[in-house]
Amino acid sequence: MKKSFIFINILMCLAVMIGDFCYMKYGTILIKGIASGLFVLTGIINLIYCIKNKLSLKFPIFLVCALFIAMLGDIFLNIEFIVGGIIFAIGHVIFIVAYCMLHKFKWLDLIFMASVLIPSILIVLFLPSLNFSDISLKVLCICYAAIISVMVGKSLSNLFRQKSFLNLNILIGSILFFVSDLMLLLSKFAKVPNTGTVCLLTYYPALFLLAFSIFFFADEKLETNHN
């Protein structure tokens, strides 16, 4: 069964990447929705793997919920940017909760969170090239930067506390998500060339990796149970 799910994940990875490149070429909201739906489907497939192996479902279910909300945020960004940003922020909060289910919150986490949060806020506040049309957009970006920084910081802390493929996979996915959002910020508010392309090239791999982390979670639990 494990080999079958690995093969399915490889197929889903290819499908997500194809969806990514199709959206980059054609740019329709339908293709964007399909591409985003594919990483949600990847999460659901790996949730099924957990169910079949009768494993704890708290982390997988929260992660799938976060993936689904990210898909909604992705779609709404094309309709109303502020609404999309708020939806994404909610999704990041759920990602953080999921990460805390792997390793409970400790004060050490705050050090890693601050190491990402402080420079992120400084970028939004003081980068000269950023040009916000109104204060509400700037406030949204500051709040959003704070939330995703906490998400990345928690993933850093988790890997520091336990070296595992699961935590490494989540960290890489979280960092790519962060880079994608930074590129979106520079593309939309600073008009930096090619940042929109980099945004898409990092966003879909990020979400696939986070969806794939459910498989690593299952594999890690199964290995622990066998030992």
* Residue share in helix: over 70%
Proportion of residues in β-strands: under 5%
Summed up, the helix count is: 8
Terminal residue distance: 19 Å
Total number of strands: 0
The chain-level mean pLDDT equals 92
Q: What's the shape?
A: globular
User: Regarding quaternary structure, how should these chains be classified?
Assistant: single chain
Which parts are unreliable, with pLDDT below 50 for 5 consecutive residues or more? none
Largest sheet properties: none
Given helix and strand content, the structural type is: mainly alpha
Taking Cα atoms only, what radius of gyration do you get, to the nearest Å? Answer: 17 Å
Order of helices and strands: HHHHHHHH
Characterise the protein shown here.
The protein is mainly alpha-helical and 227 residues long. It contains eight helices and no strands. Helix 2 runs antiparallel to helix 3, helix 3 packs antiparallel against helix 8 and helix 4 (81-102) runs parallel beside helix 6 (135-161). It is globular. It starts with a helix and ends with a helix.
